[in-house]
Amino acid sequence: MTVVLRATMDQSLVALQRQLRALAPDIELLTDGEQPLERNTPDARPPRLVGAEVIEGGGMRARRVFGDPVVAFVAFLDGTQTSQVVAYVDGVPIVHGTVAAAVRIRRNRRLTTWQRPVVRRRLYGPRRALSGEHERVLSSLGIDLVDTAAASGDASSHPFILRDQAVHRIQEDREQAERELAERWCHLEHEPLFIDGGISGSEKVAVAACTVGVVKSHRTLYAEGEALQTIFALRRAERSSVFRVTSPKRIPVASWYLRLRDPVGHDPMWGLVRVEIANPARIEEHDVGTRADTVSRWILAEAAPLAMPDARWDKMVYGIRDCEEFLRAVT
Amino acid sequence: MTTVTPLGRVVATERRPNTPHEFHFWTGLDSPVGVGTIVRVEGKYTINGQITRVYGVVVEGFSYSDLQSPLHDVLGHDGSPSSASLASTERAEIRLYTAAVLRQLPDEPLQPVPLGDVYLADDADIAVALRMDGYLAEGARTGIPIGVYHAGGTDAPIYLDADFLIGPEAAHLNITGVSGLATKTSAIEWILSSIFTHFPEKKGSVAAVCFNVKGPDLCFLDMEGEIDERDRLLYDKCGVPQEPFENVQYFAPYKSDGVSLNTLRSNEALLHNVIPLTWGLREVLQYAEVLLNKDDVDAKADALIDFIRERIVDRDFSDEHMLPGKRYRVRSFAELEQWFKDLLVAMEQRGNESWRTHHIATIRKVRNRLSNISTRCAGLVTDDGNVGDLPFGSFQDRTVYVIDVASLEEDAQDLVFARIVTKLREHLEKRDLGVKHVIVFVDELNKYAPSDGQDTYVRKMLLDLAERGRYLGLVLFSAQQFRSQVHRRVVGNSGTALYGRMDADELATPGYSVLSPAVKTKLATLEKGQLMVRHPHFTQPIFVRFPRPAILRGRDGAERYPQTQDVTLEAAILRALRPLDATISLNWVKDITDTHDREDVIRARNATLLERPADVKRFFKSQLARIVPPTAVSRPALVTPLRTAPADDPYGL
């Protein structure tokens, strides 16, 4: 049996390493560290343009958000994930993943943690590729071993494919953690919650009136042709018309693009976010523009303070950066 | 008692690790922690079966946000500071403190401070942290309250150890701070009150001798002053009565006219405990070197002074060869002057250049210098030899003796200081002073024991007092504005050091380099009534608050009891004698003194005050030379002269 360990500075990994050494003294440890896999794993989703049904009257066009920004969000929700290869067992990467999510609630303009954050640490690997002895050793570490082969169905034994499968599974777990917290918020609270990312993954969250999803990545753009040009031409404090985002696996939501910062001198996505709120019933669609204006003013109010030094500070609000910093501290 | 809610957590990073003597912790933004706050760290692991517990005092504080560059904040608010208040969220902000370790439990092994929760220290914690538990135990209590430590909800009295304040383990106290904030003198008055209240009976008696070298600060120690409610609470906390000193005696020389007392406490209503301080030739000559310039008095002059001291003063002296038929018993400057005069005349008449190996020039020089003393120290030194002095041998327990030399010339101040301290020392060595411990308070120490300049008798004496006084029970409480300008052996031997508000220039001197910038800043901004305390039991300086003394402040006292204007000789005599005999009237004094010389009257008064007889009138009268009434002289009857014999007829025939 050959087990190659990669130790990192992560405390939980060090603890795991200690246990492994106790269980298998012949294990040779490597201490050169390794960057989180998220940095090496490409986003599997290809960039694409998707047409969407405009539900706000007047078609797709730029709309000025009038009125002063309004501070309305009471809390911010975000999740993080970190994964690193703990060991290659006979060439099979065993990945240690940490997912976490937290809601930071704002009181007197200061952010504190709402309830308990979700923090989960697991090992990820294909059980079918492990020998019985290896599986027994890994299972005895006191940490869940998630079978990544079961979900993917891909029988390849290429270590990179196995590693990417693990990372994607960790990503699902992170989304699950975020959903759990968001659903708990919807169950217990009714004040506006700023969610980093979409809200369509959970029916309970997607239909709630208190949740607002703000998407920073634009690998999928919900516009084509002239509509796309309209979005790219949005100026600061302008939004697009509201459209409906639908997906076979997700709950339909109402969405629009909003420019948080002046894009002059930057790329077309600079300061651009896509907002998701609950999909209005047909009879309420005539009022969706008003709702979009209101929510846009809430989001614009979060433009300061800046989320610097985060590289995504043009799209990221400070509350979300605070969530990430908090989760970095507790994971 | 353990505070339930921690107010901070110890943090350590590779860049900023904790050590056995220093640790870092963060707190909430609203925590009551500040520079000088004492905290307790509860460790999580046991050492030798005991959970580690660390006490520390905050010496530095930091605050910062998650901003990497101030520019980010500018950008975030479009360069408009006013829009910052509109931001929806405050940036994450940290309060990070550095604390110096006061004590670790267990004491051994001494390890770096562990990570753990930080609590505000309560009264019991403070006693342990400052090692006061060792001298506050029932039955062995030697604690002297110095003030109250305040932080958050904690108001804990801080005690000094009497064994380290009055001796014999260590002794002496030095206080420094800028002038004009009523801190130094007030602190000394408060500490003396505290000592008089709490000094353990079993350690014997204690008295204080205070030299009032400027202003009226110490002139009203027995008069009640106003204090506010906060002061009362501090008094109660420290268990000290809110009263002025019960037993105070004042000593002051006369003015140069020899009639009025040279003190700001000359108001008639306060004279009952003001005693004139007058010294004669014998007292002064013992400390001649204090007054005589060392460059002036060479070995030859020194030898002559020694001769005078040993052979002339207070002894029957005659010299049939040089001064035939004359007998001397020199007891005053006037008699000494007469002796010099006779000697020099005789030498000139005989054409002698030396007398008993002393050259005439040396004799003239010494005569000049010694005669000059009574002029320079007029009012203190008398020509007549009468002495008004401190009650050496009958000092009273818990009594303050104030010597007001504020109006004296510098030389005279030195003389008073040197003689009194030396006498105290002599009596303490012989154990016959009347008390076992004496605290000597000297203000303006940078003047009497400067760090630079020529060596003076007073500085040598202060050094000796600082280095060896504690073995005798002679304790120096000293004060000055600039500690850096005081001889380091004097301040270095002070077991306890107090610091009021400090001048920034003074804080920049090397002596304060051990203090953190935050502590220095706090020192530079201390309020009235706040002190930083260093004491042998405290491993770090501690900030305390002390109450305003329940004593009439000097300025208020000077207004309420204005100094008496110079009066006639008769009125001065009346004022001096009336405390001894209330029946004496001005008319009586006038009748008695009318026909006498001013000097005779003053001499009689001094003798009366010294003797303090039962029958004052009779004694005073007896001291005045009897005036013989003039009688008419009749021309004697003329007698017929004998006829003169001619020169050439011896037989008269």
Which helices and strands occur, and which strands form pairs?
The complex is a heterodimer of chains A (331) and B (653).
Chain A: E1 3-6, H1 11-23, E2 28-30, E3 48-49, E4 53-54, E5 63-64, E6 75-89, E7 92-107, E8 110-125, H2 132-139, E9 145-147, H3 148-152, H4 159-188, E10 193-196, H5 203-206, E11 211-215, E12 220-221, H6 225-232, E13 238-239, E14 243-247, E15 250-259, E16 272-278, H7 288-300, H8 318-330
Parallel strand pairs in A: 1-2, 3-12, 6-10, 8-9, 10-11
Antiparallel strand pairs in A: 1-6, 4-14, 5-13, 6-7, 7-8, 11-16, 14-15, 15-16
Chain B: E1 8-11, E2 22-27, E3 38-47, E4 50-65, H1 70-76, E5 93-105, E6 117-120, H2 123-129, E7 143-151, E8 154-161, H3 162-165, E9 173-176, H4 184-198, E10 206-212, H5 229-238, E11 248-252, E12 274-276, H6 281-285, H7 288-291, H8 299-312, E13 316-319, E14 323-329, H9 333-350, E15 354-355, E16 358-359, H10 360-376, E17 400-404, H11 410-430, E18 437-442, H12 445-448, H13 457-472, E19 474-480, H14 488-492, E20 496-499, H15 504-507, H16 517-524, E21 530-534, E22 542-545, H17 554-560, H18 569-577, H19 586-593, H20 598-611, H21 616-623
Parallel strand pairs in B: 9-19, 9-20, 10-17, 10-18, 11-12, 11-17, 18-19
Antiparallel strand pairs in B: 1-2, 1-6, 2-5, 3-4, 3-6, 4-5, 7-8, 13-14, 15-16, 20-21, 21-22
Helix pairs in contact in B: 8-10, 9-10, 11-13, 18-19, 18-20, 20-21
